[in-house]
C-alpha cells in the first residue's frame, strides 16, 4: 500500500491546473493588450507562484513519503524527482526555468518583465507544467 495521500496530491494538481487555466486566459490576448491589462499581468504572476508552490508541495510529499528524503530548495526538489524517475529530465529542466520566473516575481530581482513572462508562457512554460502534471499523475497511478 502506498504511503502517499493521493487525495492531497490530486488537490495540489488541481491547483496547478487552475493556474494553467489562468495563464492560458492571459496569453490568449495579444501581447500588447496583455501588457496594458494590469489584472491579466498580476493574474499570470500569481499563477506562476501558485504553480511552483503547488508543484513543490506535490514533489516533497512524494519524496518524503516514498523515498524518505526531505529537501529545501526548489531546484533540489525537481532534481530529485528526475533522479527517481518521477519526472523526465526535460520536465525537470523546464520546472527549473519556471522557478526562475517565480523568483523574479516574488523577490523582484529587477523590475518584473511581463513581456518575458508572456513569451515564456507561450514558448514552453505551459507545456512543461502540463507535462509535469501528466508525469506525476502517471507515477502516482503506478504506485
Report on this structure.
The protein has helices at 6-27, 31-35, 38-67, 74-83, 89-107, 114-141. With 143 residues, it is mostly helical. It has one domain (6-141): bsu32300-like (Four Helix Bundle (Hemerythrin (Met), subunit A), Up-down Bundle). Helix 3 (38-67) packs across helix 4 (74-83). The chain is elongated and about 45 Å long. The termini are close together.
Mean pLDDT, rounded to whole units?
93
Radius of gyration computed on alpha carbons: 15 Å
Shape: elongated
- Percentage beta strand: under 5%
Report, as a whole number of angstroms, the end-to-end distance: 8 Å
Total count of domains? 1
CATH class, anyone?
Mainly Alpha
Low-confidence stretches: none
**Helix and strand succession?**
HHHHHH
Quick one: CATH superfamily? bsu32300-like
Secondary-structure arrangement, i.e. CATH architecture: Up-down Bundle
CATH fold descriptor = Four Helix Bundle (Hemerythrin (Met), subunit A)
So how many helices?
A: 6
Q: Please give the number of β-strands.
A: 0
Gist?
By secondary structure, the chain is an all-alpha fold. The chain is built from 6 helices and no strands. The protein has a single domain (6-141), classed as Four Helix Bundle (Hemerythrin (Met), subunit A) (Up-down Bundle), CATH 1.20.120.580.
Amino acid at each position: 500500500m502506498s504511503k502517499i495521500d493521493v487525495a492531497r496530491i490530486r488537490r495540489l494538481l488541481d491547483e496547478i491546473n487552475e493556474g494553467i487555466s489562468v495563464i492560458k486566459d492571459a496569453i490568449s490576448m495579444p501581447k500588447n493588450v496583455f501588457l496594458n491589462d494590469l489584472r491579466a499581468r498580476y493574474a499570470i504572476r500569481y499563477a506562476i507562484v501558485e504553480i511552483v508552490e503547488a508543484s513543490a508541495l506535490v514533489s516533497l510529499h512524494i519524496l518524503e513519503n516514498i523515498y524518505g528524503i526531505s529537501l529545501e530548495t526548489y531546484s533540489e526538489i525537481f532534481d530529485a524527482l528526475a533522479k527517481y524517475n518521477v519526472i523526465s529530465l526535460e520536465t525537470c529542466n523546464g520546472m527549473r526555468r519556471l522557478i526562475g520566473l517565480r523568483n523574479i516575481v516574488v523577490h523582484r530581482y529587477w523590475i518584473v518583465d511581463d513581456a518575458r513572462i508572456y513569451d515564456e508562457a507561450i514558448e514552453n512554460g505551459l507545456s512543461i507544467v502540463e507535462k509535469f502534471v501528466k508525469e506525476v499523475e502517471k507515477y502516482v497511478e503506478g504506485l
